[in-house]
Amino acid sequence: MAYTTINKSTDYFNTKLYTGNGSTNAITGVGFQPDLTWIKNRTDASNHNLYDAVRGTSAGKIKSNTTNAESYNAQDLSTFGTDGFTVGGNNEVNGSSDNMVSWNWKANGAGSSNTDGSTTSTVSVNQTAGFSIVKYTGTGSVATVGHGLGAVPSTIFVKSTVGFSDHWFVYHKSNGNTGSIYLNLNYAFAGTGTNDWNSTTPTSSVFTIGTQSGTNSNGATFIAYCFAEKTGYSKFGKYTGNGNADGTFIYTGFKPAWIMVKRTDTTNNWMMIDNKRTPSNTGTVPELFADTTSAENNSTDGRFDYLSNGLKARGTNAVINASGGTYMYMAFGQSLVGSNNIPATAR
Q1: Report field, pTM of the whole predicted structure over 0.90
Q2: Residue 71 CB: number of other CB atoms within 10 A?
């Protein structure tokens, strides 16, 4: 049984669906004041837009499907509220009558100075949930950056935001420290980027950046989203597909509420699934891909079943379950323990 210190996972992560109105739209019902909000228009082909409290709403968005630096639009997300956020009329975040999805994480506001690394960073951290937002300035030389988690990160997303434009560099523990996989592309993991993380595994206080300009261009500003695994709430790992509708079982220790999967041994998209768009185990799944502008697409062969303690691949799509395919994943979900610290029964 997966005991956890997190008794209510929706205090730290929540998916919020809403309908766009093409004008000012105050979205509530997230359950907390988000510090990272990721928005995608489900109806139209459009960019993914990410906003965070460390860069601030005046800095604007970064896009998971492009190499673009941050950009501001007055009609984007303008405010983080106590129970959600407010967006303007931009179609990418609030298209009139369009179906929208937002994924929201809780850190700790605008952040504060962290001197654990050789270069000073600004860190907004929620150690309970294993999530931090880190802002730092590149030096062009090998450096360490404090992340504030007090635990070893399992996944780190790094994006240049000011002064330089490059890919999203993603560290995932299943791939090791000798390279990155790019969030904005469908590429396989090459394992040859030894300068990305200087071939150094993160510690409980810092992560290391090498001389790769995409993680450490001199004078450029970077944002990093860091995640440490928390029993019963989050899981980061890998699995091997079997190409069968009676697919691989992925143990998480909780009923997943959100999962992102990326095949690493060859090209394939970054699949994103959540339990608000797919609240039950049905014959289809509304697919969204972090690396493309594609609108939501209902698929019968790209789906998982949500189980009380993990996921069961039910599709044969190579995006999630090719025979012999290697996949990395990150998942957040509902813990198997109630707020009274008594384990819940499986269902």
Answers
A1: yes
A2: 14
The answer to whether residues 122 and 220 belong to one domain is yes
Domain that holds residue 282: 234-334
Which two three-digit tokens encode residue 129?
């949930």
- In the block, residue with structure tokens 């069968």: 244
Q: What is the pLDDT along the chain (347 residues), one digit of tens a residue?
A: 456 778 899 999 999 999 999 999 999 999 999 999 999 999 999 999 999 999 999 999 999 999 999 999 999 999 999 999 999 999 999 999 999 999 999 999 999 999 999 999 999 999 999 999 999 999 999 999 999 999 999 999 999 999 999 999 999 999 999 999 999 999 999 888 999 999 999 999 999 999 999 999 999 999 999 999 999 999 999 999 999 999 999 999 999 999 999 999 999 999 999 999 988 887 778 899 999 999 998 877 778 999 999 999 988 999 999 999 999 999 999 765 554 444 444 44
In whole angstroms, give the CA distance from residue 210 to residue 303. 38
The answer on 252 and 213 residing in a single domain is no
